[in-house]
Design goal:
GO terms for molecular function: transmembrane transporter activity. Keywords: Membrane, Transmembrane, Transmembrane helix, Transport. It is found in: Membrane. This protein has 22 helices and no strands.
Length: 478
């Protein structure tokens, strides 16, 4: 091993919860700020694309398909990204992510002559870019922390809110001034953020004397073979392995193909998978519907015809409130999860988010939309912050990146289907977005129920301790 490699490795060879881990978390936040700030603004370009003769005046549904590809295919590529992140430096994957997003902005704005060409030249590359950013950032951050993983992932996932807070409003103004093509070229300049952020992303390598439950994810070759050889010969391995030995293998070595299949059928994996899948209907539906819903106020022929009109540029600034409260939600909920329970934080965010999404039905002015979307943004950010911690709690070790990617692939369901579902509901009910809001509210309720029933194993003890403390404080006052 070369001296240079030893010096570089010694930088990462730190104990768990070392302060350098926060630099890695911030680098992940910067990547998410760039990627989601751009990707989540796609619906802002919808009206400009629909009225563009060079695209053939595409319909709202055909434009929404591009949004579906951008958001929906990303988790599919996330499985491949999760597989790579256990084997390839996260820094390299983040650089690739940045280059792909930059290329998509320029290819689509220069050569696309239809909505289909926009989908394949920009949206497809944006989805790959998002996948190559999300799994590496979450896995790299998770490798640095044990006790404060909730807070660290909260910092990591706060980037999406930061991007929504300032990138989306800027793009909303640019698209009204210059049209979508020139705006795409201008927003490619934000990719410089990714070049800077990728420098600080790296996995932690445990110090040689450290006794940790999380082994070095880079163990390969002979070391893995030794670990694999320790399986009890009297016990059936592979698909029929007992659950306790399966999770011991997950935590200590890379799995064999049959063991991966067995892991996919565990309650822990299926719960995380369906929680993220159903939540995808809520989150991606919100991302798609917020700007069109707010800007539909005062639209003739709809139930909002008698309401004061709100322009598209002003409607896009709703994402500023959404983004600011996402930042607060990511960090605050992550901190709460670190000091209480990840499951408690997740269920609380789902409950409050579902209630707030239902309140969107009654919003008619800008202030009401801003206040309600702020609460919803807070809750969605909290859910995203806690989700990696829930996955890491059961699947930590050399397979963590792969399992994160496999759970995130569940977002394909919401990413692909949520925008068309919202578009069809809006068309079917004559521009009424109330039914879409009900769908979003239900899609945020179910994941909380799944988490409460299947993953929160010590909830009775947690709730009992909570009420004992409250009753104790009341009796002391009396």
């Amino acid at each position: 091993m070369s001296t240079l490699y030893k010096k570089f490795r010694s930088i990462n060879q730190k104990p768990a919860d070392h302060w350098l881990g926060y630099a890695v978390a911030i680098s992940g936040a910067l990547m998410q700020m760039m990627t989601y700030g751009i990707d989540n603004s796609f619906s802002t370009f919808s009206n400009s694309m629909q009225t563009d003769p060079t695209l053939g005046f595409p319909s709202a549904t055909s434009v929404s398909f591009g949004n579906s590809v951008s958001l929906g295919l990303s988790p599919v590529f996330g499985v491949f990204a999760g597989f790579l992140v256990d084997r390839v430096p996260p820094r390299l994957m983040m650089l690739i992510s940045t280059v792909l997003l930059f290329a998509g902005c320029w290819l689509s704005s220069s050569f696309a002559n239809s909505s289909v060409e926009v989908t394949f030249s920009y949206c497809l590359l944006a989805s790959i870019s998002s996948a190559f950013m999300l799994s590496p950032g979450a896995a790299a951050t998770g490798s640095w922390f044990q006790k404060r993983i909730g807070l660290a992932q909260g910092i990591n996932f706060s980037g999406g809110g930061i991007g929504s807070a300032w990138i989306a409003p800027i793009l909303g103004k640019w698209v009204e001034m210059y049209g979508w093509r020139k705006t795409f070229r201008l927003m490619s300049s934000f990719c410089a953020i990714g070049l800077f952020a990728s420098i600080f992303s790296c996995r932690r390598h445990p110090v040689p004397t450290e006794e940790s439950n999380e082994p070095n994810a880079d163990e390969t070759g002979e070391a893995e073979e030794v670990c694999a050889g320790k399986v009890d010969e009297t016990e059936k391995a592979g698909f029929f392995m007992k659950k306790d030995r399966l999770f011991h293998a997950i935590h200590t070595r890379r799995l064999r193909p049959k063991e991966y299949l067995r892991a996919f059928l565990t309650v822990e994996f299926l719960s995380n998978f369906f929680m993220f899948a159903i939540f995808g209907w809520a989150f991606y539906g919100l991302i798609y519907v917020i700007v069109p819903y707010v800007s539909s106020m005062g639209a003739e022929g709809t139930v909002y015809a008698n309401v004061t009109a709100i322009s598209t540029s002003k409607a896009s600034t709703i994402f500023t409130f959404w983004g600011v409260f996402q930042i607060v939600g990511s960090i605050l909920v992550g901190s709460i999860a670190s000091f209480t329970a990840d499951e408690f934080a997740y269920c609380a965010c789902c409950a409050l988010g579902a209630f707030s999404s239902a309140l969107l039905i009654f919003c008619r002015d800008y202030a009401a939309f801003a206040a309600t979307c702020s609460i919803v943004g807070f809750c969605t950010a909290g859910i995203f912050a806690v989700m990696p911690a829930l996955i890491a709690k059961n699947f930590y070790g050399p397979n963590l990146g792969f399992f994160m990617g496999c759970v995130f692939v569940a977002g394909t369901l919401g990413g692909f289907s949520a925008p068309p579902i919202q578009a069809q509901l809006q068309v079917k009910y004559n521009g009424n977005y109330s039914f879409g809001c009900v769908f979003i509210s239900c899609s945020m309720t179910v994941p909380g129920l799944i988490c409460y029933i299947t993953l929160w194993k010590n909830k009775q003890n947690f709730i009992a301790r909570f009420f004992r403390k409250r009753l104790g404080s009341v009796s002391s006052l009396g």
